[in-house]
Every structure is written in structure tokens, then in C-alpha cells.
Amino acid sequence: MAAYIIRRVVWTVPVVLLVIFMTFTLMKQIEGNPFRKTERAVPAAVQANLERKFNLNKPWYVQYAQYVKGVATGDLGPSLVLRDRTVNDIVEEQFPRSIELGLLAFGWAVLLGVPAGVLAAMRPNSRFDYGSMLFSNVGFALPNFLVATLLIYFVSVKWGMLPTSGWTTWQHKILPSFTLGLVPMAYFARLVRGTMLETLQQDYVRTAKAKGLRRRRVLTVHVLRNSLIPVVTAAAPLLGYIITGSFIVENIFAVPGIGRYYVTAVSARDYSVVMGLTVLLSIIVIAANLVVDILYGILDPRTREART
Amino acid sequence: MRLRFPMLIAAAVVVAVALVAAGCGSGDKKGAAGDGGAKSQVLKMAWGAEPPSLDPGLATDTTSSNVLLNIMDPLVRLGDDLQPVAALAESWDVDGKVVTFHLRDDGRWTNGDPVTAQDFEYSWKRTLDPKLAADYAYQLYGIVGAEAYNNAKPAQAAKLRDKVAVKALDDRTLRVTLTSAQPWFVQQMAHHSFLAVHKPTVEKHGTKWTEPRNIVTNGAFKLAGWKHDASITLVKNADWRNADDVALDRVEGRIIVDGTTRVQAFEAGEVDALDGGGLPPADMARLKQMPEYEKYPALGTYYYGFNLKNIPDVNQRRAMAFAIDRQSIIDNVAQADQIPATGMVPQGMPGFDVIKQDFLPTSADLDKAKEFMAKAEDPKRKITLFHNDAPGHKEVAVAVQAMWKDIGIDVTIKAQEWAQYLEVLGPPPSDAVYVYRLGWIGDYVDPMNFLELWTSKSGNNNTRFASPAYDRLIAQARDTADDHDRYELYRQAEAMLTGPQGEMPISPIYWYTYTNLERESVKDTFNINLLDQFDLSKVVIKEV
Amino acid sequence: MSATQIAGRVAGVDAGAPIRQSSLWQDAWRRYLRNRGAVAAGILFLLIVVWCIVVPIVSPHDPNRIEFPDAYQGPSWSHPFGTDQFGRDLFTRAALGGRISIGIGFGATLAILLIGVAYGAISGFVGGKLDNALMRFLDALYGLPYLPFAILALAIIGTVNFWTMVVALSVASWFITARVVRGQIMTLKENDYVRAAYAVGVRWYMILGRHLLPNTLGVLVITIFLELPGVILGEAFLSFLGLGINPPDASWGSMAQDGRDAYRAHPHIIIIPSLAIATLVLCANFIADGLRDALDPRTKET
Amino acid sequence: MGRLLEVEDLRTHFFTRAGVVRAVDGVDFSVEKGKTLGIVGESGCGKSVTALSIMRLLPTPPARIVSGSIRFDGRELTTLSERELEDVRGREVAMVFQDPMTALNPTLTIGTQIIEVLRRHLGLDDRTARRRAAELLDEVGIPRARERLDDYPHQFSGGMRQRVVIAIAIACEPRLLIADEPTTALDVTVQAQVLDLLDDLRREHEMAMILITHNMGVVAESADDVAVMYAGQIVEQAPAHELFRRPEHPYTEALLAALPDLDDNGARSRRLAAIPGRPPDLIDPPQACRFAARCPYAGCGDSCALEPPALRELRPDHRVRTAHPASEREAVTA
Known about the structure:
- The complex is a heterotetramer of chains A (308), B (544), C (302) and D (334).
- Chain B has 18 helices and 17 strands.
- Chain B is of the alpha+beta class and 544 residues long.
- By secondary structure, chain C is mainly alpha-helical.
- Chain C has a domain at 104-297: MetI-like (MetI-like fold), CATH 1.10.3720.10.
- In chain C, helix 2 (21-34) crosses helix 12 (268-295).
- The longest helix of chain C has 40 residues, at 204-243.
- Chain C is elongated, with a radius of gyration of 23 Å.
- Chain D folds into 2 domains: 3-92 and 176-279, Rossmann fold; 102-173, no CATH class.
- In chain D, strand 9 (225-230) and strand 10 form a beta hairpin.
- The longest helix of chain D has 18 residues, at 188-205.
- The chains are: A mainly alpha (308), B alpha+beta (544), C mainly alpha (302), D alpha/beta (334).
- Chains in contact: A-B, A-C, A-D, B-C.
- Chains A and B meet through helix 2, helix 4, helix 6, helix 7 and helix 9 of A and helix 1, helix 8, helix 15 and strand 16 of B.
């Protein structure tokens, strides 16, 4: 297992370098002047000064080397558009909010999605089962901009129960995290129901019952534990869902996170921010994959030997 | 066990609902309203963007500009008639190309230091410093030596710096020498690029000097908090020279970028005023019915430009300009009570009555349009129309597309995101472009700002329109101090663009307005001027 | 008798050999038909596709004609979905939007399959060090959100049209497919009939083309419907972020974007395209489930 | 000698969309204390369903015990609540399943899986339970028992896993052990060992056992009494020696005929020889004798093709359900 982990970790290095290089190359292909933000033409002198300031006048390989060096030392460079701040500043201040949003969304998903799946599986074809699966299917299919719009209209504007937008008190956080959590919630409900139904039919569950174990122990120790393994494996791809979902959710709910910055930064040609965020997102996903794989190994002993 | 899971969930739901109910019970839903007696002077407002920089040298956008103009004291503000009004400068002398400002003696930085003429000299030269690489350095190019210094190679920078003709004669006297008469220079002082910064603070904190914990300002409000992308909190500066006249104690600003989200926050009572950053056009019909709706004239022109290489025949351009139903676009698409634009220089600009041309119709004149089209030699019937993908432009383009269909022109609309779009427009514009849309919002109050765009060397002339006669007119106007004479020159220039004999390189569509939502308690005192600036020191929250 | 034919004979007597393809598919079809939800979803899906194809042809309304007096009408007999801000008939425009959304959806899904199959097949078939390298790479990228890369891709291409959208949506979405295909090929490679084919000297490309790839077809059909919802929602997200295709064309996503700003006064403009997206995604999910049950003999109906 | 388990007229049906499957349709038998009852039959004849009915482990729905009674030591099991049953299972009646590869939870150590049953029924503390678990493993013949407690099921071979399953089953010294085809999934070489182990343990712990199998050879070796099942019913029931000496039912005869030589060890691995025809569909079983379609003696002018024969006692303790028992047949065919 240890050897496997080390090998996986070692493999992430070239992949991260490749991601940086790909992003860097891609960014260089994008036309557009990060310093021209309005209709106003930028005088040549100003343009030259700006390019000098941000090292854009250097050859690409020098820029790449500088960038890789920066990433290695944890310096993602200055923002070309937000002049008072570096990419590190932006990440440090706004990324935690996105993470909080993501975790809360994940929390909804686990809190509501998993029990819904468990209950549905315990009473297959019951009304609850049909209801929760209908909800899950619909939740999965509805685009989150519609969900967000409807929630804001009814809950906030019409009934005045929660704030429409922002990210200060816990009341502010309910709607955005719920909206973002809907897809993982639906996904978990379906996944858990499926795996749980499968697990319930396993011989070892019958063995456990034949031992006379209490129903609670059979369900928690023998059924749930084994049913949740696929849920853990699904967590990494869901992270991707949550990150991309946050692009829209953060915008609609005015959450000062990092997701909506991405879109803005691409269109503003804020190269350093785009690269910083892309590299960061990639590293996070890569790390999450690693963690999930390791967790999987811990949860399912069968995979341990196979991987060492 | 059978019951535990459902019960757990039921319990969770009950708790959640209870919390929510409790939360909205205690929440201050209606903002500042609700406390009896004297109105608390706390304004809750929504800013339309995160300020990219609160450094006067680096700021380029409306939001930064508005925050800055409320926390910093400019030399001059603009009055209602757009004439300069004394602010930090109590008076000024204009002697040909030399302008001298006399500063008040009670200007104070928030750390207690007096605001001096040296501060301005330092700040302006800092903005021109090639190492700072300020985007708006060119705002100062009217000063002798400014452009040369901004262009300087590192080696010569120090030498050229001293040649910039801005000089603090003493603590309270600032003398500026201009490259030409520039009658609008004093008004330009109301622009944030001409604000002073506090030298010790800037030098001590570097790029971080604008953070609330570091910043030293000299205006009516202090920057008490700036949570990036989330909120900006201003508090009254009790030591300000005119603090007694400032009613507001605090301005709690939230940054809300999305237009619909901003409107929702307003309607839910979370904010009392928006920053005039534009309401969603698609919702305008409804918003206009609200008592909180407010509109202001703006100095701005929304226009379609023609690429003269692709549409060389002036009659086709005239035909196209005549086929556009400006009023219908305003009524049905833009919907913000804009004014149909019949020229480049917008209504409200000093001298407008002299300059304006009454050639283009406000509604479509299809007969005339077809007449012109018939006169056109080899008219282009398959053309492209480029616009950037910001909200609202698509709708106008779609409407114009339909209107031009009526004179037999097939339009392909191409939307591009902003940065890409500007690349395509040049100048010179890409050959793929036949027609493009742009807008121009004035930086300062003179028609020059709108008409110099169309000189042949202008970086904003994306039409390939190049007329030596036009260039000469503009150069002449730049040196004409007398308003009346200058306006006449502008009239001739405007005629060369949109007059009956004009080349019609552009078809103006409408002159902008600013639209806003303001709670009735502040509606009277919260006002946006022609340059999209609002002065929070004038705002009073009233009982309604 | 050619080597392939011999291999076929050998395969025929082997217990591990696949049942004749036609009967496999017939069985699957029969199993699929027994799944009522999947059948209903399939029919609804077809109806939507037919609506998208037929309505614009037969509609009395020009989808791009502007009639401001008719703007923002609610649903009625002549405009079942109402009209938009230009007075254009939304029933027709939604159908046109569906053509684009579904077209982009299938286009991008096919592109994902092509890349995924190529990558997965090479990795699984060649095996060894190459497979190891390719898979470690995939392991690391697994779950990488495709939307950032789609946005980058769109910015690079510059203009947005049907094909650039397809490219953008497929450029970083093929990781899972590649993994699935590779796994399938690896399993199939171990089958005795493949070994037998090798033993009698069948060329590798014949083995790949005749024995391996056709047997991944079932998985690929499922994958189409598994990927489709994600791609359609992805297109809607991009359009909603203002990165959609050019007017007067519109996808469901960009129609919904138009509708959001106007939702307070005219909710139908956002709701109709959103529901269209949701219905399509729902159908695709049900179809995918049905296909999986039908094509994967391991999952039995209860 | 008392009767430990009495099953009377047990009917277990499966209610499916296709119809009601009468998997067990009127089964009577009893098990004496300390004795082994072998239940033999082809797959699908209802023998496993009978075992699971006793344990009440069938998934309901679709399965349901529609009538009959199961008395264990005088206590009616069919009416017990789930909670009361939990006290019976594993403590009084334990079960060994067919496939040791799937019967153990792959994510828990075998130690955990043994200890949990000890703690559940005997209330042992962790340390005592662990010691006892090691003893149990030792008892079922797993070497280095103490160390192997922390291993996971996948680290054991099939035979070893079945020993673990058996250890779990006998952990609380149940009075009845139901072994449902305990050797079917195992390698030929270990089948005998596992059977011997079961027999030894039964004797040592004075348990009664129900041994379910499709293999006559297995029954011959270990059972005291034998019940032969066919299509959800018992068709013949007798003490083992009696049954093997004088089989009466044509089906039993066929089963025995397929068994070449009882003393041949290889016989245990032999599957039932094919009998022409198939068992009837249990959704709509024939009104008549369920074996009629395959019975070489049916249709000889008697009633068995029209009405079902009853289970009758031909000799003391030897009951058979056929119109043509061997002992009455000579006359007819002769």
C-alpha cells in the first residue's frame, strides 16, 4: 500500500507539470489584450510599460520557467487586472469561501442524499422509494440556474425567509449550498440506493442475519459500510461537478468565491489568474483522486494487495 | 431501528425549519427602516463590481472611481451645470496654457497630515512613472513633458521626470503647464486620475497600501472595510473639512455583479440603492413601474460603426443608418428611456445645440433608406454585424438585423467576448467586420472627447474613416479656448460624420441614460451626474 | 479457409465465446422493452427529437421575425409556449434551440467516444508500459472538471458556433470513457476466443476490429446516454455564462439565459427551455439505466 | 429421544409478477435431538427455501410462509417477531451456507465477524470473545488461529473460509445446525474434510443437524434420516439405512441408481445423474402427482395422473408420496 501511494504521488508531478504547460500554452493562444478593458485604446507607451511590468515582453520559455518556479515556491504571480492583488491574495481570500460552499453543498448531499438512498433501499418500491427517486431524478436533471432562480424568487423575494444573495451569515449560505448540493444529493441518493440494494442481497448480509445480529448492527456494520464504498469513489468526480457548478451558483448568489472569477478572468485575459486557478483546480482534483484511492484501499481490504 | 432513520431526518428537518424561522424572525429584513425616532444614517447599497484597484493611479473603472471620489477629495468637483466647483482647491487661475491651483488650508489626510500641493505633484508624477505602468497615465498627457516621461526608457526616466511641468510652488500652490489651451482641463480635475495619494503610506506598503488597514485618505468617508468581491464599508470621516455637512454615518456596500441578483437584493430590502451600474434590460418594463426607479442623463453614445473598406458606398451607409428604428429599439429592446441618437455628440453636452445635426431620423425612415440604397453602387447585401457578448447588445443586434432585412441586407450576427472583440476591431478592423457596435462614455465634459475618436490616428477609430480635413478641424479646436468658436468647429466636424453631406462612418443609435433603483428615503439626495459619479456626502436618509 | 474463419470456428465451440451478436442485441432489446420507465423515456426522447426536427419546418411562424407588438405573450393557442421579447414564437424557437442543444449534445458525445475509444483501445490493447503510463495519466486527471477547459477552448477558438462548442465540450470530458473502454478491452483480451485467434495467427488489427471493439459496443451505447446529460447541461452552463452560440440561433441554454433577467415579469421564458433541458436529461438517464440493465447480464431484474 | 424441530405442512410461496411460485408446498418433517436429517433433491426443489423458512431468512416480499408451523423445542417460530427471532438465530439455530466465497463480509476481519456473534449472544467482553474466537478457529482446524483473526476473508482459501463460516455457526453452541449444501462450492479434495468436520462438531457439541444437499453420497455418509424433496414436496422420508436399502419412490430410485458405489470416495463429487424430463413449473403445478411427467410408471391406468397421491406410511418411519412405490410395483409390472 505504501509503495502504491508513493508511486501515485510521484506520478502526480509530471501530470501537474503537464497541466501547467498545457494551460500556459493554451493561454498563449488566446488573442486579446489584458490591458485594454474598455473601449478606450491603450497608448503604445502605456502598453509597453504594462508588458514590461508583468514580464510579458520576455520570450515564452522564460515566462514558463518563471511561472513553474513560482508555482513550485507557491507564488502564482500578480493579477493583470486586479492591480492591488496577487493571485495568491485572491486565492487566499476567496478560495476558502468556495471550499466552504463546496463542503456545505457536499454536506447537504450526504445529509439528505445518503439517508434518502438508504431509506429507499430499505423499502424498495414503497411510496418513499418512488418519491425520493423521483426527487433525485428531477434534482439531477434540473439545470441549477433554474433551481437557483426559483429558490431565490420564492424563498427570498416572495416569502422573505432567507437573504437573496451574499455570503456573510449562515442564513446567506443555505440557498447557494443547497442549490449546488442538489446534483450530488440526487447522485448520492441514487447511488446509495443502488449499492445498498445490491449489498442487501449479498450472502454475507444473510450470514449476518443468520448470526442473530440485531438489525441495527446488520445495517450499519454489514450493509451501510459496504454500500458506502462506491460513494467514496464517486466523491472525486463530484468535486469536479461542485467546482464547475460553482461558476453559476456563485454568480447568481453573489458568493465572493473563486468559481465565478474564472469566467471573468478568462474574458478579461487575466492570464496569471486563469493559470493560477486552472493549476490549482487541477492539483486539487488530482489530490482528491489520490485521497479517494487511498481511502478506497482502507475501506475495501481486497484492493490493498492488488495495488502494492 | 425501523423508525430511527425517518425520525432522524424528520428531526433534522424540524430543526432546520425552526432555525430558518428563527433566523428570519430576528433578521433585519427591512434594512434601515424600523427603528423609531431619528433615522439612522446608514446607507446600504450595492456596488456593481469589485474595484480592480483603489489606487487613483491604477483605477480605470466606474466602481473604483466612485469609491475613490467618495474617500478622496478632488481639486475640483463638477456642479450640476457641469462647471467646475471648488473642492480641495479653493480657487484656480488659467493663464493660457498655465493653470495654477490654490489649495485650501484645511485639507487633512486621515492620519492628520495636511494635504499639500507637493502631494499632487508626487501623485501625478507617480502615475506617469513607467514603472507603475498606469493604464490611465494618458489622462495626464495634456501636461507638458508627461507623455515623454511615461514613454521613458528606465535610464532616462529620472531626467524626464523632472521635466514634467507640474510643480508645487509651495504647500498650497500647484502650477501646471499644458501642451495646448485645453479649456476642459480644470473640469478634468474631477476625474479620479487626478486625485492625490499619501506618499509615506504608498511608499511604506507598496501595492498593499489600498487595503483598509493601511490606506490613508482625505475625503468625506473613510474606507473602513473591503472584503474583496464581497463588501465595501465606508464610514464618515469626522475630521473632514466639511464633515458637518455630511449626513451619512456609514455606507455598507455589498458587491453584487449580476444585474438580476442586484435587483433581487433591492426588492428583498437588503439594499437601499444601487450604484447606477445598469438594470437588466429584459426586466426594464417592470422596473420602470416601480416608485424606486430613477433615471439620469448620461454623456454617452451607443453607435454602430461601419468598416469603410467593406461598405465603401456612403449611400449604403446612409441607407442603413436611416433603416434603423432608434425609437423602437429604445422602447422595445433597450427600454431604459434612452434618447434616440442622431449624432455622435450626446445631448446634454455643452454646445450640443450648436453641434447637433438634424439629418438622421429618430424612427426608421424606410422610404429614404430605400432611396439611398437605390443610389448605392454595388451595395453589399450579405454583411456581418459584430458585437461583444455583454447583456443587451445581442438584443439590439437582433432588432437591427431584422430592420436591415427590410432594405434587402442579410446580416450575420457574430458575438464575441470583449477581449477578442477588441482584437478584431483593431484599428484597423479585421476584414471580417462589416458593422460593429461600440459605445463611448465621456471622460470629461467637452465634445472633444467624442469627436477626436474619428481622427485618422485615433486608436478608437475602427472604421477606416480617415479625413485630413476632419483631423485639421479637431487640431484647431484643441487650441481654441473660446467656447463659441470651438463649438462651431465641432459642428463642422459632426457634420462630416452624421450630417447630410457627411461620410456616415457610424450610425449612432442612442444616447445613454443611467438607470437606478433607489429607496424613496434617499431618492432625492442620491444622484448620479452625467459622468456616472455620485457624491455620497450629499446623501441624507429621510423619513418617508 | 482463412485464419479469421478458423478463429471463428474455434471461438464458436468455446464456452467463453460471445453469443451471436444478433441474438445478444435481440435479447437486450427484449429486456429493454420490459423496462417501462426506460421505454417511456425512450419514446419521450424520440418525441422531443421529432418535435425539434418537424416543428420549425411546419410552423407558421418565422422563428427570427421580429414583431414587437407580440412581445412577451404568455402561452396561447397560436403560441403554445408564448413569445419572447421580440415577439418570436417560442414553440418554434424552442424546437430550433433543441436542434442545437441535442445536436451539440450528440456531437460532443460522439467526439468524447472517439477520443475515449482511441485512447482506451490503444492503452488496453497494447498494454505494458504504455498502458501503465497512459493509465497513471488518466488516474490523475480523472474527475478533472471539463468546464474550465471548455471555457479556455472557447476563448482560444474565438468564435462560438456549433462545431467549436462540440470541440470545447469534448476536449476534457473523455477520461471516463477512455477508462471504461480500456477496462473492457483488457477483459475481452483474456477471453479464450481471442487467445485462440492469436494462436492461429490472426493479425492484431483484425483481432481489435473484429473481436474486441465490436464487443465494447454495448458499453459504448450505454456511455452515449450516460455522457449526453452532462454534455447537454454543460452546453447550457456555458450558454448561461454568456459563452453560447451566436444569435439569432439559440440553444436551450442561451434561451434560458435570456429568460433569467426577465423572469419576474415573464417566467415562461426561462422555465420552458430549462424544463426542456431537464426532460431531455431525465430521459437520457432513464434510457441509460434501461440500456445498462438490458445490456449488462450481471444486473438482474427483481 | 425428543423432537427438537417439528415442521408441519410448511408452505412457502413467492409472490412474483409472473405469479405465485409454490416453492415449498406442504412439507412435514422433524429432527430428533442430536441427529442428522439429510434433505436431498435437485436444485429448485425447495430444500434451501425450507431451510431459510426455518431461519425465517427469506426476503419478504416476495417470499411468505403462507401456512404451516415450525416448532423448535416446542416454540412456534413462524409467529415470532423479528426481534425474538434475532435471539433464536445464531444462538439456538445456526446456519452454514453454500458459498463461503460470498458468505463472509469482505471488508471485516474474520475476527470481527466471529466476535460479533459471541458478544451478541453470550455477552462476552472483547478480550474473552477474542480468546474464544481463536479457540473456535482452532477447533475448526485453522492453523495459527490467533494470528489469523486479523486477516480478511480474501486472504483465505475457499475451504478455509467454509471452516470460518462453520466456526461462526457453532460459536454459540446452537442446538440445531442447518448446513445448506456446505460442500458444493468447494474443491473436491476439501469436501470430505469439511463434511467430516461438520460431523465431528455435531457429535462433540451434541447438536442436531439438517444437511441439505443434492448429493446422495453425502447423505449416505452423515445422515441418520433422509427426506427426498421434489418440486416443493417431500416425496420420500425414511431412516438413512432403510432408504438406501429399500427405496420406494421412483425418483429416489433414480437418484440412487445414479450413484455408482457408495464406498467410492469419488462418488461424493458426482452430481445427480440426469433423469429425463424437467421438474414442473411451480407457478402452476399440475393437479396430479408432480412427478407424473417423468415417472416411468405413471399413466398405467391409475389415478396418479389426475389426483395427487398423499404421503403415506408404507412401513414404520418410511413414508412415500407415490402411487407406485417399489414394494407395490412388482405385482403390477410382473
